[in-house]
């Protein structure tokens, strides 16, 4: 289902809408009203919205590159005056007293915030589902997951309610919902955007903020505009990427997951067909292996458990009524698993930090690596729900999220783009291109080339 219609938004992406607003063809308030109407229509079926503002914030940066573009902030990031619920029923959230640093950076691009989008509890799950509430549904097929943890943002963007929306990624949470919903999702290099305050206090900072969008140029425009607000001097500037490069790349092809999980036929076809397209465009593609420590999957799961444990210990900072017993089945299971393994923490952290060495070794002689985003295509609602018994759920999670976490641990950039191949029932399949630290420009240029070679399927055309 989609909500594209003949209104102020039309089928414009964020760059197109911002240009129309600058030319005076559309007013920012008119765009916000049109988006709000679309959001209400979409959310009747998708359940993607946590908070919808009656009086959206206008004019935060009237000269920003995305001035007037309606959007949403994910509900794990503070927006002054709105509660931050983290997708959890374990506490009653209170209104944030100030914007998070990334919120200020996001607003600096000129966007108009219409509210906050839903996520699974504390962002732990790759699907946006809950124990006692409606799941976020995929607009391409509402019986299927929209992905997670930025599932609410992805569902709204894919359905046409807003052109782009905030997302963040601690294990795949930008790229996974982008793949599920046929979107572009760039996870930036660690430190490319304003750092997450919580992440900096952890032994391995996993989280990067960004957006999900329907076009490559929207993701590129966001990153360039965000860089105008703050740029990390330790990374090469990205600037505004506006199209493919003439440079021919050496591309590694990684079809089989580092943890040995079998990739399904649709996903394998999507990746191999993309490799063939890149070869036709003049790039060199060759098989590659990432010799990741065999403990990596269990180590990452243990570290995820550490995060759930820390939330259980510090939860009262979010709300005085926080009760860790009300955390969902996945969060509780992760916490209990960690309690049984806590003595392994130093070794887990040490091995995770060493992953950057294996990652760098895999890139010798290569510019980027092409791989699946996920080991299999978008599952139906319920397959990964937190109501599934923990042991079964973890087995399913590890058979699904087999590629994305490496970039979070190493801190490297990675982008999900829609493949030309779709499943028999029309669901999108994403492919992922990963780079060295600071390689966002190369990833965006290659994504532009794929989009120009074969424009991404549009939900409104199906």
TrEMBL record:
SUPFAM superfamilies: Amidase signature (AS) enzymes (SSF75304). Pfam families: Amidase (PF01425). Residues 125-152 are annotated as: Disordered. Residues 37-444 form the Amidase domain. Transmembrane segments: none annotated. One of its GO terms (molecular function) is catalytic activity. InterPro entries: Amidase, Amidase_CS, Amidase_dom, AS_sf. PANTHER family: GLUTAMYL-TRNA(GLN) AMIDOTRANSFERASE SUBUNIT A, MITOCHONDRIAL, TRANSAMIDASE. Belongs to the amidase family. NCBIfam families: PRK07869.1. This is Amidase AmiC. It comes from Streptomyces pilosus.
């Amino acid at each position: 289902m989609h909500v594209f219609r003949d209104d102020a938004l039309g089928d414009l992406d964020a760059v197109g809408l911002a240009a129309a607003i600058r030319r005076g063809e559309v007013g920012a308030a008119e765009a916000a009203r049109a988006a709000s109407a679309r959001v209400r229509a979409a959310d009747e079926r998708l359940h993607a919205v946590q908070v919808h503002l009656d009086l959206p914030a206008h004019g935060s940066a009237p000269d920003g590159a995305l001035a007037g573009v309606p959007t949403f902030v994910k509900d794990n990031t503070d927006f002054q005056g709105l509660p931050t619920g983290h997708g959890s029923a374990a506490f009653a959230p209170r209104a944030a007293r100030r914007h998070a640093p990334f919120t200020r950076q996001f607003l600096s691009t000129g966007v108009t915030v219409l509210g906050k989008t839903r996520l699974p509890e504390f962002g732990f799950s790759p699907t946006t589902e809950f124990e006692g509430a409606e799941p976020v549904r995929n607009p391409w097929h509402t019986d299927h997951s929209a992905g997670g943890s930025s599932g609410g943002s992805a569902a709204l963007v894919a359905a046409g309610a807003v052109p782009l929306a905030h997302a963040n990624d601690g294990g795949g949470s930008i790229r996974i919902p982008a793949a599920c919903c046929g979107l572009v999702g760039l996870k930036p290099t660690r430190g490319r955007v304003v750092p997450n305050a919580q992440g900096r206090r952890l032994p391995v900072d996993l989280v990067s903020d960004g957006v999900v969008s329907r076009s490559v140029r929207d993701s590129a425009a966001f990153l360039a505009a965000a860089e105008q607000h703050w740029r990390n001097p330790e990374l090469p500037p990205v600037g505004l990427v506006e199209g493919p490069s003439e440079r021919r790349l050496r591309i590694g092809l990684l079809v089989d997951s580092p943890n040995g999980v079998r990739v399904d036929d649709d996903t394998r076809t999507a990746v191999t067909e993309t490799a063939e397209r890149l070869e036709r465009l003049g790039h060199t593609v060759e098989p590659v292996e990432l010799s990741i420590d065999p403990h990596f999957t269990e180590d990452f799961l243990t570290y995820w458990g550490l995060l759930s444990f820390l939330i259980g210990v510090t939860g009262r900072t979010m709300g005085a009524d926080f009760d860790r017993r009300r955390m969902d089945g996945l969060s509780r299971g992760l916490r209990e698993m960690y309690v049984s393994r806590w003595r392994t923490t130093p070794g887990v952290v040490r091995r995770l930090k060493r992953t950057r060495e294996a990652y760098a070794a895999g890139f010798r002689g290569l510019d980027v690596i092409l791989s699946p985003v996920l080991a299999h295509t978008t599952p139906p609602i319920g397959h990964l729900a937190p109501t599934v018994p923990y042991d079964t759920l973890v087995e399913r999670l590890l058979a699904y999220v087999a590629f994305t976490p490496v970039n979070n641990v190493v801190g490297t950039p990675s982008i999900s783009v829609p493949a030309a191949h779709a499943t028999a029932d029309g669901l999108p399949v994403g492919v992922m291109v990963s780079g060295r630290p600071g390689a966002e420009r190369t990833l965006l240029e290659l994504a532009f080339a794929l989009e120009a070679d074969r424009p991404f399927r549009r939900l409104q055309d199906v």
